[in-house]
Design brief:
Layout (H helix, E strand, L loop, with lengths): L4 E4 L5 H6 L9 E2 L2 E5 L5 E10 L11 H6 L5 E7 L4 E8 L3 E7 L9 E12 L5 E12 L2 E6 L22 E12 L8 E11 L13 E9 L4
Antiparallel strand pairs: 1-13, 2-3, 3-4, 4-7, 5-6, 5-13, 6-8, 7-8, 8-9, 9-10, 10-11, 11-12, 12-13
Length: 228
Protein backbone atom coordinates (compact mmCIF):
# COMPACT_ATOMS: atom_id res chain seq x y z
CA UNK A 1 0.00 0.00 0.00
CA UNK A 2 1.30 3.41 -0.93
CA UNK A 3 1.62 5.71 2.05
CA UNK A 4 2.40 9.37 1.53
CA UNK A 5 3.29 11.76 4.33
CA UNK A 6 4.12 15.23 3.07
CA UNK A 7 5.53 18.04 5.21
CA UNK A 8 4.14 21.42 4.18
CA UNK A 9 5.34 24.92 4.96
CA UNK A 10 2.08 26.51 3.84
CA UNK A 11 -1.48 25.64 2.84
CA UNK A 12 -0.69 25.93 -0.86
CA UNK A 13 -1.22 22.35 -2.03
CA UNK A 14 -3.60 21.59 -4.90
CA UNK A 15 -5.82 19.45 -2.65
CA UNK A 16 -6.23 22.22 -0.09
CA UNK A 17 -6.80 24.85 -2.76
CA UNK A 18 -9.75 22.85 -4.11
CA UNK A 19 -10.98 21.97 -0.64
CA UNK A 20 -11.13 25.62 0.45
CA UNK A 21 -13.00 26.92 -2.59
CA UNK A 22 -16.30 28.44 -1.51
CA UNK A 23 -19.58 26.91 -2.69
CA UNK A 24 -20.93 28.36 -5.90
CA UNK A 25 -17.70 30.15 -6.88
CA UNK A 26 -15.04 29.06 -9.35
CA UNK A 27 -11.79 28.12 -7.59
CA UNK A 28 -9.22 30.87 -6.91
CA UNK A 29 -10.86 33.65 -8.91
CA UNK A 30 -9.08 36.99 -8.79
CA UNK A 31 -10.09 39.89 -11.00
CA UNK A 32 -11.86 37.71 -13.56
CA UNK A 33 -8.93 35.34 -13.95
CA UNK A 34 -7.84 32.25 -12.09
CA UNK A 35 -4.47 31.11 -10.87
CA UNK A 36 -3.87 27.38 -10.47
CA UNK A 37 -1.07 25.06 -9.44
CA UNK A 38 0.30 22.47 -11.80
CA UNK A 39 1.31 19.03 -10.58
CA UNK A 40 4.83 20.34 -10.04
CA UNK A 41 3.64 23.13 -7.78
CA UNK A 42 4.24 25.82 -10.42
CA UNK A 43 1.71 28.60 -10.89
CA UNK A 44 -0.07 29.04 -14.20
CA UNK A 45 -2.43 31.78 -15.35
CA UNK A 46 -5.84 30.90 -16.73
CA UNK A 47 -8.10 33.14 -18.75
CA UNK A 48 -11.42 34.86 -17.93
CA UNK A 49 -14.25 33.08 -16.10
CA UNK A 50 -17.75 32.84 -17.61
CA UNK A 51 -20.95 31.66 -15.92
CA UNK A 52 -23.32 29.14 -17.54
CA UNK A 53 -26.62 27.53 -16.60
CA UNK A 54 -26.52 23.77 -16.00
CA UNK A 55 -28.03 22.80 -19.36
CA UNK A 56 -26.21 25.39 -21.47
CA UNK A 57 -23.66 24.40 -24.10
CA UNK A 58 -20.15 25.58 -23.19
CA UNK A 59 -16.90 26.04 -25.14
CA UNK A 60 -15.67 22.71 -23.70
CA UNK A 61 -18.25 20.92 -25.87
CA UNK A 62 -20.33 19.65 -22.93
CA UNK A 63 -22.72 21.15 -20.38
CA UNK A 64 -22.55 21.03 -16.59
CA UNK A 65 -25.41 18.51 -16.62
CA UNK A 66 -23.41 16.24 -18.92
CA UNK A 67 -20.39 16.69 -16.64
CA UNK A 68 -22.31 15.58 -13.55
CA UNK A 69 -23.98 12.69 -15.38
CA UNK A 70 -20.55 11.40 -16.41
CA UNK A 71 -19.63 10.84 -12.74
CA UNK A 72 -23.03 9.88 -11.32
CA UNK A 73 -22.10 6.24 -10.79
CA UNK A 74 -22.74 4.28 -8.70
CA UNK A 75 -19.16 3.10 -8.30
CA UNK A 76 -18.09 0.18 -6.08
CA UNK A 77 -14.34 -0.28 -5.60
CA UNK A 78 -11.85 -1.37 -2.97
CA UNK A 79 -10.85 1.33 -0.48
CA UNK A 80 -7.51 0.95 1.32
CA UNK A 81 -6.86 2.52 4.71
CA UNK A 82 -3.34 3.72 5.52
CA UNK A 83 -3.49 1.56 8.67
CA UNK A 84 -3.54 -1.56 6.48
CA UNK A 85 -7.23 -2.53 6.37
CA UNK A 86 -9.43 -2.40 3.30
CA UNK A 87 -13.17 -2.23 2.62
CA UNK A 88 -15.57 -1.97 -0.28
CA UNK A 89 -16.39 1.67 -0.99
CA UNK A 90 -19.55 2.87 -2.70
CA UNK A 91 -19.64 6.28 -4.35
CA UNK A 92 -22.33 8.26 -6.15
CA UNK A 93 -22.47 11.88 -7.33
CA UNK A 94 -25.86 13.55 -7.34
CA UNK A 95 -27.15 16.19 -9.78
CA UNK A 96 -25.04 19.31 -10.22
CA UNK A 97 -25.99 22.59 -8.56
CA UNK A 98 -25.62 25.68 -10.72
CA UNK A 99 -24.38 27.90 -11.94
CA UNK A 100 -21.39 26.35 -13.69
CA UNK A 101 -18.17 28.21 -14.44
CA UNK A 102 -16.09 28.00 -17.59
CA UNK A 103 -12.45 29.06 -17.29
CA UNK A 104 -10.78 29.95 -20.57
CA UNK A 105 -7.38 28.38 -21.10
CA UNK A 106 -4.37 30.58 -20.52
CA UNK A 107 -1.57 28.36 -21.77
CA UNK A 108 -0.59 24.71 -22.15
CA UNK A 109 -0.34 24.35 -18.35
CA UNK A 110 -3.83 25.79 -17.84
CA UNK A 111 -6.25 24.35 -20.42
CA UNK A 112 -9.86 25.53 -20.53
CA UNK A 113 -12.12 23.74 -18.05
CA UNK A 114 -15.69 23.61 -16.78
CA UNK A 115 -16.49 23.37 -13.06
CA UNK A 116 -19.71 22.94 -11.10
CA UNK A 117 -20.66 21.96 -7.55
CA UNK A 118 -22.50 18.74 -6.70
CA UNK A 119 -23.19 16.42 -3.78
CA UNK A 120 -21.14 13.27 -3.30
CA UNK A 121 -22.11 10.24 -1.22
CA UNK A 122 -19.28 7.98 -0.08
CA UNK A 123 -19.62 5.00 2.23
CA UNK A 124 -17.46 2.01 3.16
CA UNK A 125 -18.63 -1.42 4.29
CA UNK A 126 -16.55 -1.13 7.48
CA UNK A 127 -18.77 1.84 8.50
CA UNK A 128 -15.88 4.28 8.85
CA UNK A 129 -17.30 6.43 6.06
CA UNK A 130 -20.96 7.24 5.50
CA UNK A 131 -20.61 10.72 4.08
CA UNK A 132 -22.58 13.33 2.15
CA UNK A 133 -20.19 16.07 1.02
CA UNK A 134 -20.37 19.13 -1.22
CA UNK A 135 -17.79 18.67 -3.97
CA UNK A 136 -16.47 20.52 -7.00
CA UNK A 137 -16.42 18.76 -10.37
CA UNK A 138 -13.79 19.99 -12.84
CA UNK A 139 -12.97 18.77 -16.32
CA UNK A 140 -11.43 19.74 -19.64
CA UNK A 141 -13.08 16.67 -21.21
CA UNK A 142 -15.43 13.97 -19.97
CA UNK A 143 -12.83 11.19 -19.99
CA UNK A 144 -11.01 12.62 -16.96
CA UNK A 145 -12.98 14.42 -14.27
CA UNK A 146 -11.61 15.76 -10.99
CA UNK A 147 -13.80 15.59 -7.87
CA UNK A 148 -12.72 17.41 -4.71
CA UNK A 149 -14.29 18.47 -1.43
CA UNK A 150 -15.14 22.18 -1.64
CA UNK A 151 -14.76 22.92 2.05
CA UNK A 152 -12.43 21.51 4.72
CA UNK A 153 -13.99 18.40 6.24
CA UNK A 154 -14.04 18.63 10.04
CA UNK A 155 -16.09 15.59 11.04
CA UNK A 156 -17.35 12.26 9.74
CA UNK A 157 -20.83 10.78 9.80
CA UNK A 158 -19.61 7.17 9.78
CA UNK A 159 -19.94 5.21 13.01
CA UNK A 160 -16.17 4.57 13.20
CA UNK A 161 -13.86 7.57 12.87
CA UNK A 162 -10.97 7.06 10.41
CA UNK A 163 -7.61 6.71 12.15
CA UNK A 164 -4.80 9.17 11.42
CA UNK A 165 -1.64 7.00 11.36
CA UNK A 166 1.60 8.02 13.06
CA UNK A 167 0.09 10.98 14.93
CA UNK A 168 2.83 12.39 17.13
CA UNK A 169 2.59 13.94 20.60
CA UNK A 170 1.48 17.56 20.40
CA UNK A 171 0.07 17.24 16.89
CA UNK A 172 -3.56 18.14 16.24
CA UNK A 173 -5.75 17.09 13.32
CA UNK A 174 -7.10 20.29 11.76
CA UNK A 175 -9.27 19.09 8.86
CA UNK A 176 -9.62 16.57 6.04
CA UNK A 177 -9.84 16.86 2.24
CA UNK A 178 -10.99 14.48 -0.49
CA UNK A 179 -9.48 14.54 -3.99
CA UNK A 180 -10.66 12.02 -6.60
CA UNK A 181 -10.42 11.45 -10.34
CA UNK A 182 -12.90 9.57 -12.53
CA UNK A 183 -11.41 8.31 -15.81
CA UNK A 184 -12.72 6.45 -18.85
CA UNK A 185 -15.36 6.87 -21.52
CA UNK A 186 -18.54 8.44 -20.04
CA UNK A 187 -20.78 5.68 -21.42
CA UNK A 188 -18.41 2.86 -20.45
CA UNK A 189 -18.90 0.45 -17.56
CA UNK A 190 -15.11 0.45 -17.18
CA UNK A 191 -14.89 3.92 -15.62
CA UNK A 192 -12.49 3.94 -12.67
CA UNK A 193 -12.23 6.11 -9.56
CA UNK A 194 -8.81 6.95 -8.11
CA UNK A 195 -7.79 9.39 -5.41
CA UNK A 196 -7.37 9.79 -1.70
CA UNK A 197 -8.56 11.18 1.63
CA UNK A 198 -6.00 13.41 3.33
CA UNK A 199 -5.73 14.76 6.88
CA UNK A 200 -4.10 18.12 7.56
CA UNK A 201 -2.21 17.92 10.86
CA UNK A 202 -0.94 20.93 12.81
CA UNK A 203 2.55 20.43 14.19
CA UNK A 204 3.27 21.05 17.91
CA UNK A 205 3.39 24.61 19.26
CA UNK A 206 6.71 26.22 18.47
CA UNK A 207 6.86 24.78 14.99
CA UNK A 208 6.64 27.48 12.34
CA UNK A 209 6.74 27.92 8.61
CA UNK A 210 7.66 30.68 6.18
CA UNK A 211 5.55 33.81 6.51
CA UNK A 212 4.58 33.02 10.08
CA UNK A 213 2.02 30.38 9.06
CA UNK A 214 1.37 27.46 11.36
CA UNK A 215 3.44 24.45 10.31
CA UNK A 216 1.32 21.58 9.07
CA UNK A 217 1.76 18.26 7.34
CA UNK A 218 -0.58 16.18 5.23
CA UNK A 219 -1.15 12.53 6.10
CA UNK A 220 -2.77 9.95 3.85
CA UNK A 221 -5.78 8.34 5.53
CA UNK A 222 -6.92 6.09 2.68
CA UNK A 223 -7.28 5.77 -1.07
CA UNK A 224 -8.98 3.81 -3.81
CA UNK A 225 -7.10 0.69 -4.88
CA UNK A 226 -5.30 1.48 -8.10
CA UNK A 227 -4.52 5.10 -7.19
CA UNK A 228 -1.09 6.18 -8.39
Amino acid sequence: MRRVIKLLCSLGSAILAMACASAGDPPSVHGGQTGAETGLGERCQSGPVSEFSLDAATPTGFSAEELSMAVTGPFAQEWRWATGESALARLTVEAAMGPAHFVAGGDAKCPAELSVSARLRLSTDDQRLNEDWLVLLRATDLEQIEVASMQPIVEFAGSLRPTVPDLQEGELVDSYALALRVTGQPSSAERVVSGELIATVQLPPGSSAEGGLAAVRQVLLGDFAGSD
